[in-house]
Amino acid sequence: MKEFTAGVDIGGTNTKFGLVDREGTVLFQGTIRTTDYAEFEDYFKAMAEAVRNSLRTLNSDHKLVGIGIGAANGNYYTGNIERATNLKWKGVLPLAKLFTDEFHVPCILTNDANAAAVGEMIYGNARNMKDFVVITLGTGLGSGFVCNGILLNGHHGIAGELGHTSVNPTGRFCNCGKRGCLETYVSATGIKRTVYKLLADHLENSELRGISFDNLNTKMITEAAHRGDIVARAAFEYTGRILGMKLAETVVHTDPEAIFLFGGLSQAGDLIFKPTIRHMEENLMPLFRGKVKVLPSGLQNQAAPILGASSLVWDYLDKKVQLKLEMV
Amino acid sequence: MKEFTAGVDIGGTNTKFGLVDREGTVLFQGTIRTTDYAEFEDYFKAMAEAVRNSLRTLNSDHKLVGIGIGAANGNYYTGNIERATNLKWKGVLPLAKLFTDEFHVPCILTNDANAAAVGEMIYGNARNMKDFVVITLGTGLGSGFVCNGILLNGHHGIAGELGHTSVNPTGRFCNCGKRGCLETYVSATGIKRTVYKLLADHLENSELRGISFDNLNTKMITEAAHRGDIVARAAFEYTGRILGMKLAETVVHTDPEAIFLFGGLSQAGDLIFKPTIRHMEENLMPLFRGKVKVLPSGLQNQAAPILGASSLVWDYLDKKVQLKLEMV
To answer: I want to staple B70 with a disulfide (CB 3.0 to 4.6 A). Which of A104, B176, B232, B309 is the partner?
Structure first.
C-alpha cells in the first residue's frame, strides 16, 4: 500500500490542490476558482467533488492518509478559517471538520506561511533543521517559525505575523488597518509602492515610467534592474534594507539557524539577498553576527503551495507516532 | 527521601545560591562575592565549598538531584558561560561540567532571563501556560520565551535577546556596541537616562533635580512619581510607551498567552503597566488586540534568581521522564 496525502492551498482567487507522496512527488494536481462560488457550501461541495475525482486517477494500491490545508487566517487549533479578508465568505469556516467528515481521514489546517514552513522542513532546504523561519513574499509578507523542530502556532494559533511588525508608525497604509507595516514595504505590492515613490521623488529616467501601477509586477522590476535601470535597482536596495533591518529583530527573538525567503521577490537572487544580508548583519546585536544564514527556499516551483499543505499531514503523522510512544 | 535542587545565580557583583524543594521552598540560601576572585579557578573552588557546606545543613533524608545555574551569556547547549561582559574572567567558562564532576548530579546552565522564564513556569504565575514571555527589568532588559511548553533556546543557544532590538538606530549608546537598543530605554538604567533627558530638555521643577545620576535609582523615581512629580511621571509614561510598542512586535512573532514583567521597574505597578498595555494594544495588529495579558511576575522576592536557577533542574527532570517514556 502506497500512502499519499492531499494538499489544498486556498487563495483569494484560486484553490490549488494535489496528491503527494512522502518523497514530495506530486501524483496529481488541479485548480478550482475560489471566486466562482457565492456560497461557502457550494464552494466546499465543488472542492470535495474535485478531490474525489482526483482520487480516482490513482490505482487501488494507493491510500489517502490525510488532507492538509493552507489558507490565510487558517487556525491550526480549531481547523477553521477565521474572518479571512481575502475570501468573500464571512465568519468562521470549519473546513478541517468538513473534510474529515467527507473523507474519514485527519485534516490539518493552518495559515499558508505556516504550511510553507512545514513544507520546507519535510521536502525543502530545512530538512535537517530544528530552528528556522520561512518568509513568504507574495501580495503580502507571511512567515512561519519552526522552533525545537515544532511549528510555532502560539497560544491563539496566530503566531508569525511578521508582515505586520512596524517599519514606520506614520508610514504607508496597510490592509490590516495600521500604518507602516513591514508588508507595505517588503512584498510584491511593497516594491511596486517603492518604485512609485522613487519615480515621484526623483528625476532619473527609468523604463518603469511607462508602466501603470496596475500593470507593474515584480518580474518587470527584476528585469529592469538586471538591465541596469537605476530606479529598479534602488527599489531592490531599499526593499532589502528594510527586510534586513527587520530580520535583525526577528533573529534576536528566536535565534534561528536560517531564514528562508520564498516567492516572487526572492527569485530576484542577489538583487534582494545581498542588501537583505548586509543590512541584517549591520543591525544585528554583535553576539549574533555571522551566525544566521539567509537562504532561498527549496520549494520554488508551481507546486510549492500544494507541497506545503500536504506536508502538514506527514508532520502530523510523524509527531503522532512520537506521541503514541510517549503513551506506552 | 526528600528531593531538592541547588540554584546558583551568577551576577557581576554577587553569586547567590540556595537549596530548593519541588514546591519552591528555599531550604538554605547564601551569597559569595563574585568580584572577590581574580582567577576563575579560585571562584569555582569557593563556590563548590559554599555549596558543599550548605548541603551539610540538611539531614540525611534529603537528596540533591541537580544543580541549576543562571548567568548572563550562559549557553544551555554547551553548559558554558561564553564571553560574559559582566565578569572579569574572559573566554569560555565550563561551569556545568565542573559542577557535575564535583557533585555527580546533572547541572543545567542558561542565561538568567531564561532561568526566570522556567522559574515562572515551575513556581510562578505561568504554571498552567505553554506559551509566554518573561521580561526581566534590571540593569539591562532580559527576556525568556516558552513556546509549546519548552524553553526557547534557539539554534545557537542565545534566543530571547529582546534588550537589543532597535528603538532608534541613531539613539542612545548601548553596551553591546549598537545604538538605540531597547534596554537603553527600558530598564533601571534606561529610566534614569530618560529622567536626565527630561531634566535637560524641560524647565519643570522636579525633586529629582537634586539627585546625581550615580545616586538615582528606580525606587526614587517611583516614589517621586507617587508624590506627583511631573518628571518622574513623564519618565514612566515614556518608558511604558516604548516597552508597549516593542511588545506589540514581540506578540506577532510568537503569539503568547501572557507577558510577565519581572524586576525593580515592574514593581512600580500601574505607573509602568498602564502605559505599557495601552501602547501595546494601540500598536498591535488588530487580529491580536485584547488577547495577550501583561502581568506581574509571580516571583517578586529576594529568592527569585535562586528559584529561577533551581527550576531548570525540575524542568530538565520532568522532560527527561517524558523522553524515557518515548524510548520504551
So the answer is: B309
